[in-house]
Write a structure and sequence with these properties.
With 482 residues, the chain is α+β, with helices and mostly antiparallel strands. The chain contains 18 helices and 18 strands. The protein folds into two domains: 198 residues, Roll (Ubiquitin-like (UB roll)), CATH 3.10.20.30; 240 residues, Uridine Diphospho-n-acetylenolpyruvylglucosamine Reductase, domain 3 (2-Layer Sandwich), CATH 3.30.465.10. Bound molecules: flavin-adenine dinucleotide and FE2/S2 (inorganic) cluster (2 copies). One FE2/S2 (inorganic) cluster binds next to loops.
Length: 482
């Protein structure tokens, strides 16, 4: 994949600038430098902790606020250990030092203290920032506040007291006026007053202009786990600043989703959610909220992990992929199932990037995604499997199935789909289809399980799709009665 590291889009002209807490900072560090090291090393703000440096523990969590069209700043959590500094140009970055109220604790910090939710304190800044991010967003559900800390690990307090603090914060926010304004949050002492002036201060930061070369980076959640040291001194090209990469639009029956969108962006997009109403449920099994705030669709495809969750889901949605040549500015389209060639080999040519994926929305396809991993949350899959299916009467009119962890690539299960097309949906045909499936997969034994275990898991996930989607037509007792 090295050949895709250097491209001609560049973003120089001005230094990288952003607001760190209440202060405008600028740096001429290479764009690939890591935000966490800048915060702690250059700015001497040691509240943000270094834990795993791999996005797993949440100790380095900060808030990243972006100015939207209506002069509103939208805040989300990010792990600063995986964030190239160029990705925060023009943003408001908030660390634990910037969330207190005039040297006093804010409401989140008070709740943590009052519920004994901190012991050694190493993880605490990450939790405080994650809860503050929840307060700044409009969400008001108890599941939402639990979800906000899905990327934070505490090794000594125990989660019960953190959960009690979460419930207390939720209770305080439950009765906030609709839309939960900044003014209200300031008045209730959730955030400091200086937040009010951030939109107008962000507007004054000049966008970066294209420069000569660098590493293409989406959210950095794969790149910085794999080669953080190598990237430190390099320039980086933020993909979400390339025009069109974060667009979503409906053209006739096709929904086009920009490859620069993160999983969270997709959840916040009305068009995507109309086409895929169960996406939130599926994405609960994908990484953690903070990683979903960063990792992009394009990054998941280019990483080409055989167990990439988004790759498997979009294969089952029978998506088409559009590749843009940066040199010629021409684009080409191909079915996503032709994109994955061999282990970590993809159909991306020199100077190309993934612009978007398109899915058909006219057909009323039932969609499902299943995943088994060692831990339910914040873990990559042992096996994952997705389906989209349309019935006509009791027959299968169209079906697309894909699975991860059973081949060197995210695998479109072509033969199984062909076998099931135009067949009656019943247990007998599904059992026969499973025999076809067994022949087109080749799982290997590794730390995620033996080959035999993975075969068994895939069978269970394959049957689970039909039991979940068509409970009146398919019974588990019939399927497993072999
Ligand atoms: C803690 C943690 C948990 C995770 N859990 C999961 C999980 O449950 N499921 C899962 O599937 N993945 C998981 N991941 C992996 C990762 O988050 C995803 O693969 C994510 O989608 C990668 O996107 P990114 O934008 O961060 O990629 P980056 O790291 O920015 O980029 C990855 C590669 O893709 C290239 N690239 C990115 N976008 C484009 C584009 N549009 N065109 C051309 N090249 C491009 C980059 O140059 C780079 O080579 C996890 C990662 C972490 C750190
Ligand atoms: S240091 Fe663990 S997530 Fe960043
Ligand atoms: S308080 Fe020690 S790790 Fe959480």
């Amino acid at each position: 994949m090295e050949k895709h590291m250097t491209k001609m889009f560049n973003f120089t002209g001005v230094m990288i600038q952003f607001i760190l807490n209440n202060q405008l900072v600028e740096t001429n560090l290479p764009g690939g430098s890591i935000l966490l090291d800048f915060i702690r090393g250059d700015q001497h703000l040691k509240g943000t902790k270094i834990g795993c440096r791999e996005g797993d523990c949440g100790a380095c969590t900060v808030l990243s606020g972006s100015l939207s069209d209506n002069d509103h700043v939208h805040y989300k959590t990010i792990t600063s250990c995986l964030t190239p500094i160029i990705n925060v140009h023009g943003k408001h970055i908030v660390t634990v030092e910037g969330i207190g109220i005039e040297a006093e604790l804010n409401q989140v910090q008070k709740s943590m203290l009052e519920h004994n939710a901190t012991q050694c304190g190493f993880c605490t800044p990450g939790f405080v920032i994650a809860f503050s991010g929840y307060a700044l967003n409009k969400e008001t559900s108890i599941t939402g506040i639990r979800e906000s800390i899905s990327g934070n690990i505490c090794r000594c307090t125990g989660y019960k007291s953190i959960e009690k603090a979460a419930v207390n914060i939720f209770e305080q926010l439950k009765h906030s006026p609709k839309g939960r304004s900044l003014d209200w949050l300031i008045k209730q002492r959730f955030i400091p007053k200086y937040f009010q002036k951030i939109p107008e201060r962000l507007k004054k930061i000049v966008p970066l202009s294209p420069l000569k070369a660098g590493v293409l980076v989406g959210g950095g959640t794969d790149l910085y786990v794999q080669k953080a040291e190598e990237l430190q001194g390099m320039e980086a090209i933020p993909l979400n600043q390339i025009k069109g990469l974060t667009d979503v639009f409906q053209n006739g029956t096709k929904l086009t989703i920009g490859a620069g969108l993160t999983a969270s962006d997709m959840l916040n997009n009305e068009l995507v959610m109309t086409a895929l109403p169960r996406l939130k449920e599926f994405f609960q099994l994908v990484s953690s909220q903070v990683i979903r705030n960063m990792g992009t669709l394009g990054g998941n495809l280019v990483n080409a992990s055989p167990i990439g969750d988004l790759s498997v889901l979009f294969l089952a949605l029978n998506a088409d992929i559009t590749l843009l040549n940066l040199d010629t500015e021409s684009s080409r389209k191909l079915p996503l199932k032709e994109f994955f060639k061999d282990y970590k080999k993809i159909a991306l040519q020199k100077d190309e990037l993934i612009q978007s994926l398109a899915i058909e929305t006219a057909k009323t396809m039932a969609v499902n995604f299943e995943k088994v991993s060692k831990r339910t949350y914040l873990d990559i899959a042992s096996i994952n499997c997705a389906i989209s299916i349309q019935l006509k009467g009791d027959e299968i009119k169209e079906i697309h199935l894909a699975a991860g962890g059973v081949a060197p690539i995210p695998k479109y299960l072509k033969n199984t789909c062909e076998f099931l097309t135009d067949k009656k949906l019943n247990a007998e045909n599904l059992r026969k289809a499973h025999c076809v499936m067994k022949e087109e997969i080749a799982p290997i034994s590794d730390i995620r399980g033996s080959a035999a275990y993975k075969r068994l898991l895939l069978r269970q996930l394959f049957y689970a799709h039909f039991i979940r989607l068509f409970p009146n037509r398919v019974k588990s007792s019939e399927l497993l009665n072999v």
